[in-house]
Amino acid sequence: MTETLIKLDDVTKTYPGTDVPAVANLNLEINRGEILVLVGPSGCGKSTTLRLINRMIEPSSGRIMFDGDDVTHVNADELRRRMGYVIQQIGLFPHRTIAENISTVPKLLGWDKQRTAERVDELLETVGMEPGIYRDRYPKELSGGQAQRVGVARALGADPEVLLMDEPFGAIDPITRDRLQNEFLRLQDELKKTIVFVTHDIDEAIKMGDRIAILREQSVIAQHDTPEAILAGPADKFVEDFLGSGATLKGLNLLRASEVELDDVTTVRAPTSRHEVMQAIEAASSPWILYLDESGAPKRWLDRRSLDEVNSIDQAGKEVRVTVEPEDTLRDALEKMLQSAVGTACVVDPTGAYRGVVRVETLVEIIDRLQREEQARQEAR
Amino acid sequence: MTVATKVGEQSSSSPLAEKLRGNIELYVTPAFFFLLATTVAVVWIYADFDAQTASMLEPSKLIRETRQHINLTFWSTLLVLTIAVPLGIFLTRPRFRRLSGPVLSVANAGQAVPAYGLLVLLLTVRPPGAITAIIGLTVYAMLPVLRNTMVGLDQVDQAVIEAGRGMGLSKRQALFAIELPLAVPVILAGVRTALVINVGTAALAFLIGGGGLGVTINAGLKLQRDTGVFIAGALVALLALLIDFVAASVERGLRPKGL
User: Fold this and answer.
1) Interface pTM (ipTM) of the complex?
2) Quick check: A98 and A134 in contact, CB under 8 A?
3) Average pLDDT, rounded, for chain A
4) A91/B163 CB distance under 8 A
């Protein structure tokens, strides 16, 4: 199954006028269908490495193999049309509509109108944007998160086998970034693209990567392995320092909300009456119960006192501000828990409907376990 | 990815201020135009023309001079466009960028010389006539278009070009599909400036036998006929306002949507 799709063979890039190469003798294999994350401190050459793959930067020496062919000297423009490309600044064409943006590569490849239009609508739906609403809009009418979704849709335009992503979620606020990461992971489950993903954020790397290549200066690979293996056994001091303290906390990045046993709390679902809510609170084993709206999405935490203060249930108690999606890592869940009024994070399914909760106690147990494992490893060494 | 994004998530630009600004531009110029045109009409009807003034302001002569004036402006601006826009593109390509400094200083010098001097200097190398005048006007109005073409291309967001190139647009495709369309507003602003400069400077074309409304203005000044000076001068101004208005409308129409 693990078949190499892209191979960098002893690739070196030295910029004119400098003696020190930006990328030195890099050998890297990227397997079909995996997300490979290139991560490292700034200036380590990870972006340069990514741009060597689609030859936005021409290598000074070495070979680039793609799907068994040497592509070091083929027409670079044609090569790029076979690889989706997403950058941090997104770079949507401001004078083109969303549909025109997404159809950039299909148009370059000479697709007919009908096929292109169908593809645009399909892609907009894939990234969760209603084609009827967004097709004919211009990029300036989009929020940052929407623009990045369109950026991904555009990169997928002609269904390339490969996606190259250079800090794609780097310029987006944490909450939207988290949601985009989750959406992207769900998308990748269906698409099974081969993805090279550059980031400087080790937490993002652990969350997104099937495998991670940790790079040091001149794109020298310090360690290239699965996130689990890297966390369990950092190859050297550099990797250890880069992972930083709190390896246990990093371990929380490996577990997803969908993988832990969810707890249940008493819920009431709109439409409901004050009386029913009171009864539910009386009967509940915990002080707080969860109020869901008609669609089943968690809305507010209610306790005995909250109904005394206000008349409407819609304003009583504490608002549920953030929810955890199944793809969220336990670290994401922990952060959201800290923002929650009641120290409990609501887990919702992709439609936003309530699935269960993760309690602080559950996380403490897991952290305990991880710490014991960590200690055992260190003693074994 | 079933979570549909809300419409409310979109960034709301405030189009009101923009619209107001645009509208003022659309109304003020015509207002001035009609004010001035009315004044000209009133003067024309009520002023006493002596024989000199009457022959100076003979309608068929004025029409001929206006036509010459428009021709001078049109051909010189067209020449400016065909030279300055490609030159601007050429000078913003990485390979030739180091030439941009010297070329800009030459263009600067062209405009630094007073128009009067430039036209007369041309007589040392060319015979008098409309073509020599057009050459002079072309040199004189080159700078704004050249500079705006370069600025317009330089201010295009590098990330947009990078994204385009990264998707497989060739250099040429990126230039025509991304860079030039996004530079159009700035380039057109330069063209509009050039047009207005040329309408004004064409009034000096008579100095080297280029014709135009400058002929009548000059005659009026020499013979001290203020009415003649006023009418011919006002015609130049009306022409400038009209051309500026047309250029503004074209600019508006050609500006890419979504900017």
Assistant:
1) 0.79
2) yes
3) 89
4) yes
- The residue type of B94 is P
Residue pair B31/B244 in contact (Cβ under 8 Å)? The answer is no
Comparing CA positions, the residue from B83, B123, B132 lying closest to residue B107 is B83
- Which residues from chain A sit within 8 angstroms of residue B258, using beta carbons? 94-97, 138-140
Q: How far apart are CA A6 and CA A193, in angstroms?
A: 12
pTM: 0.80
- pLDDT confidence of B252, banded at 50, 70, 90? confident
Which residues in chain B have their CB less than 8 angstroms from residue A164's CB?
Answer: 166
Nearest CA distance, B223 vs chain A (angstrom): 56
Q: Starting from the edge strand earliest in sequence, which strands make up the sheet with A4-13, in order?
A: A23-31, A4-13, A61-66, A69-70
> HEC profile for A223-281?
EEECHHHHHHCCCCHHHHHHHCCCHHHHHCCCCEHHHCCCECCCEEECCCCHHHHHHHH
By a Cβ cutoff of 8 Å, what residues of chain B touch chain A?
Answer: 1-5, 7, 9-11, 13, 157, 159-170, 173, 177-178, 181-182, 256-259
pLDDT of amino acid A380: 72
Q: What is the pLDDT of residues B158-181, one digit of tens each?
A: 999 999 999 999 999 999 999 999
Strands A4-13 and A354-359: unpaired
Burial state string for B44-67 with b = 16 or more CB within 10 A and e = fewer than 16: eeeeeeeeebeebbeeeebeebbe
If pLDDT is split at 50, 70 and 90, which confidence band does B11 have?
very low
Residues A326 and A352: their CA atoms lie apart, in Å, by: 11
Q: Which residue has the tokens 């009583």?
A: A316
Contact (CB, 8 A) for A205 and A185 = no
Selected residue with higher pLDDT from A351 and A7: A7
Beta strands (DSSP E) in B54-193 are none
- Strands (DSSP E) found in chain B: none
Domains of chain B in sequence order: 15-254 (1.10.3720.10)
Closest CA in chain B for residue A83: B167
Alpha-carbon span A367 to A68, nearest angstrom:
44
| pLDDT computed for residue A320 by the predictor | 86
